[in-house]
Amino acid sequence: MIIVMKPDYDEDDLLRIVRRLEDMSLRAHISKGEQRTIVGAIGDERILAEIPMESFPGVERVLPVLKPYKLVSRDFKPENTVVSVDGLDIGGPRVQVIAGPCAVESREVLEEIAESLLPAGVHFLRGGAFKPRTSPYAFQGWGEKALEFLAAVREKTGMKVVTELMDPRDIELLYKYADIIQIGTRNMQNFRLLTEVGNIDKPVILKRGLCATIKEFLMSAEYIMAQGNEKVILCERGIRTFETETRNTLDISAVPLLKLLTHLPVIVDPSHAVGRVDLVPAVSRAAVAAGADGLLVEVHVRPEEAMSDGPQSLRPQPFLSMIEECRRVAEAVGRSL
User: Fold this and answer.
1) Tens-of-pLDDT digits for all 337 residues of the chain?
2) Are residues 145 and 32 in the same domain?
3) How many domains is the chain built from?
4) Which of 78, 168, 209, 272 could form a disulfide with 196 if both were Cys (CB 3.0 to 4.6 A apart)?
5) 272 near 283, Cβ under 8 Å?
6) Which of 248, 259, 256 lies closest to 212 in space, CA to CA?
7) Is residue 39 part of a domain?
8) Residue 193: inside a domain, yes or no?
9) pTM of full prediction above 0.85
């Protein structure tokens, strides 16, 4: 249920509503926009139906939220959510770029990659410390040692660290080292993991599952927000179809569709979407044109030596060229990059 306050409401009116909802064991989520203040009432709909919210002073109207995802819904919060990391906004006018290797291999290689990204104005460094791989015999990541490498490179370059969480038991470790925690595609419906990251004050990138519908994707985001963490960034990274020429099929329509359905920032991972380095620039341009708030790109100084995902990793110079192309696209649609 959404409670829309009158323009001339006073704080006592708002406090009275919040107290009533809490007395009924319901949650009140307040969103103050430029023109309106709304209160989202979260909880058992049968209880909500028994409270005559329209009769409370200061209330203009009461609207039901028909979608199963409440906190995530654009109905619940009309204004875009901007996730800020030390003054760097994801979801604002600027299209942010998150780049780096699939897996952290060594401090020296990571530092070399990070320094190659700086001329492009990249502020976010990605790198996997724990790697979910299809084969149990493939490289699984260096764990805490990799996190230490990421922190050391952040200290030297000022870049913010983005890395993936796979196990709830590692959440305190990643909280210590990461600026943004990523939940990978295979864990999109790991509800225990989603609940855990919902309980911490740290931005979360949630990747769409291999075969997940948009509704399932947003319901997973709801799990995080329902625990109190509103710093959620959605990532479209391609879905599994019958096509075999690319690693996955990028659902480019998901970007504008998500923008209609939710207030959360939406970024695109072109590297995992296509799995082919020759297609990454074109797909990245398309993502920016479609309204993406950011790109998550795999870059490596020597892809032929990469311990993970070398075939889809751009070298620094092609990456710089791609960023310039995407910058022109961003300007054409009223954004910056």
Assistant:
1) 888 889 889 899 999 999 999 888 888 888 777 777 888 888 777 787 788 888 899 998 888 877 888 889 998 888 899 999 999 999 999 999 999 999 999 999 999 999 999 999 999 999 998 866 667 766 667 788 999 999 999 999 999 999 999 999 999 999 999 999 999 999 999 999 999 999 999 999 999 999 999 999 999 999 999 898 999 999 999 999 999 999 999 999 999 999 999 999 999 999 999 999 999 999 999 999 999 999 999 999 999 988 888 889 999 999 999 999 999 999 999 999 9
2) no
3) 2
4) 168
5) no
6) 248
7) yes
8) yes
9) yes
Tell me the two tokens of residue 328.
């022109």
